[in-house]
Amino acid sequence: MAVQLPGPTGLANLTYGRLFLTRPYAAIAALYAAYGPVFVYGQGPFRYFYLIGPEANHYLLASNPGNFRWREAFEVLAPIDGETALILSDGEDHKRRRASPDEADDVMALLVATKDETGDFLSNLEVRDQVVSLIAAGFDTTSAAMGWAVYAMLKEPAIWERARAEVEQVTGRGPLAVEHLGQLPYLDWVISETLRLYSPAVIGVRKAAAAFEFGGYTIPAGSMVIYSQYITQWMDE
After folding, report:
1. Which of 8, 102, 119, 132 has its CA 20 to 30 A from that of 151?
2. Higher-confidence residue: 68 or 134?
3. What is the pLDDT of residues 94-122, one digit of tens each?
4. CA–CA separation, 70 vs 57, rounded Å?
C-alpha cells in the first residue's frame, strides 16, 4: 500500500498560499520545516511534488537525470526561447543541440558549425532558438548573479577591497581579459559563494517520466517535481 505524501490540507493550504504570493521561497522553507524533505502542495494542474535538500538535488540532477523530462516543465517559455531551445529539449535532441565542434571563435560560429552524429548541421530555426536562449539567460541569470555579488561584497568592505586589489594586481589596472580569469582565485571564491547563497535559478522543475521512490514515498509518473538549490544552501544543517 502506497504511503500518502505529507502536505498541507484545508485552511493550511490557504495559509501557505498567501505566503507564496509574497515570499515564495519562505513558503517552501516553511513547508520543508513542517513536512520534511518530501511533500505535496497545490491543487489540480497546479499540484506539485517537492523534493528539498542535498539528497533530493543529487537524486534529480546527478544519479537519476534520465528519469526526468523538462520539456513539459518549461513549456511556458516556448514562445520566448523557441520550440528547439535547449531548455525545451529532452533526450537525444538535447544531446545533439549541445554538441560542439572542436574549434570556434565565437558562439555564433560554434552553433553554425555544430554537427550531430550523422553529420547534419543544426537547422536555421535551431540556431535562432539557441541564440535567443543565450540572450535571455545572459540577461536574467548573469545580471542577477553580478548584482548579488556586488551587493554581497559591499556588505563586507574588506572582501570588496581584497577582490579589487587582486584584480588590479593581475590586470595592472588595465582591461580585464580572458587570460586573466585563471589568475583570480579570490574573486572566483567570491563568485562561487555568491552563487551558493543567491542562486539565480532558485528553483528547478522536472516531470517524472516514470514513478520513482524517494524518502520512503512513491512519486507517480507524470508528476511535476520541484527542487530548490536556493533553499538547500540556506538550510541550517
Report:
1. 132
2. 68
3. 565 556 555 556 677 777 777 766 777 77
4. 15
Which grid coordinates belong to 222? 507524470
Rounded CA separation 103/159 (Å): 38
Cell of 12: 493550511
Sheet holding 48-51, edge to edge: 38-41, 48-51, 224-227, 204-208, 68-69
Helix axes 11-22, 24-35, angle to 10 degrees: 140
Nearest to 38 by CA among 202, 208, 182, 214: 214
Contact, 52 vs 45, CB < 8 A? no
Q: Is 201 left (phi over 0), alpha (psi -120 to 50) or beta?
A: beta
C-alpha grid cell for residue 8?
A: 498541507
Q: Quick one: cell of 63?
A: 544519479
Residue 190's pLDDT band, with cuts at 50, 70 and 90, is very high
- How far from the centroid of its chain's Cα atoms is residue 22's Cα? 21
State the DSSP code for 84: T
Q: How far is CA 145 from CA 86, 159, 192, 224, in A?
A: 21, 17, 10, 27
Q: What is the pLDDT of residue 146?
A: 92
Q: Are 219 and 225 in contact (CB under 8 A)?
A: yes
- CA–CA distance, 224 with 48 (Å, rounded to integer): 5
Answer yes or no: is pLDDT of 18 > 80. yes
Map out the domains of the chain with their CATH numbers: 11-233 (1.10.630.10)
Inter-residue contact 87 to 77 (CB < 8 Å): yes
**Cross-strand pairs, 38:** 51
